Amino acid sequence: MSRTVFLNGEFVKEEDARISAFDRGFLFADAVYEVTSVRAGKLLDFDGHMDRLERSLGELELNYKLDCMEMLEWQRELVRINEIKEGIVYLQISRGAADRSFKYPGPDVQPTVFMFTQTHAHVNPADPEVGIRVTTIDDLRWGRRDIKTVQLLYPSMAKMAASKSGFDDAFLVEDGQVTEGTACNAFIVTQSGSIVTRQLSRDILHGITRAAVLRYAREAQMQIEERSFSVKEAQESAEAFITSASNYVMPVVDIDGVKIGTGRPGTVARRLREIYLEESLKAAK
To answer: From the candidates 42, 65, 103, 148, which is the catalytic residue?
Structure first.
């Protein structure tokens, strides 16, 4: 059965969705996106995703007036139509279709708004019970990683390189310091119990799940340090984990073949995952 997708104000079957070959999202990756997790048929961290989307639109001077309530209704309807209980809603807004030019087109060009759903198991996959293994790869992305654009070729290349080497994912490294994962924020837990993750800047994506997990950690009186950390410090840490909309909180048990802590998911990561699953669902829309 084909999915129903959303395109420019209409719900259509995926095979009937048509986007111009001159769309700047296709020609220039001139588009931003968000991925909102769906659990029990509800949208997690929706407000945070809309706040970040509005920021990304502004940073690219992309002429789209975001109506968060309207977007919420569209996404809810898409979840309902496709009967998504657990999965994601992908939202992409491009600058629209125009003759190819490096200069942005004028305000008369209408942005392309596209959404679809995917079924995806977040809550009970095997990975959180055993953890994932990551390798390290040079971070060669552009310098505005804080804008959530569809320029994802290098993270895709890094993910494939990790897979070919027998790892589940990769930590991207710049000047000896871990920036983030291919599609996630990176964390470690020091031997003294502090949770460490890189501070917000243009170097990393301002993760919505990251923000929620840090908020819950502070509420649980956990010690937090927002700073950079090296690969060596990560390998010598008590625990490591990643956060993202599709993985929530995922323990990392191995970095470049070096066992992290006991080599099993640690107590901090496991506890934060439990808290996130419980608290995010309470606030879901």
So the answer is: 148
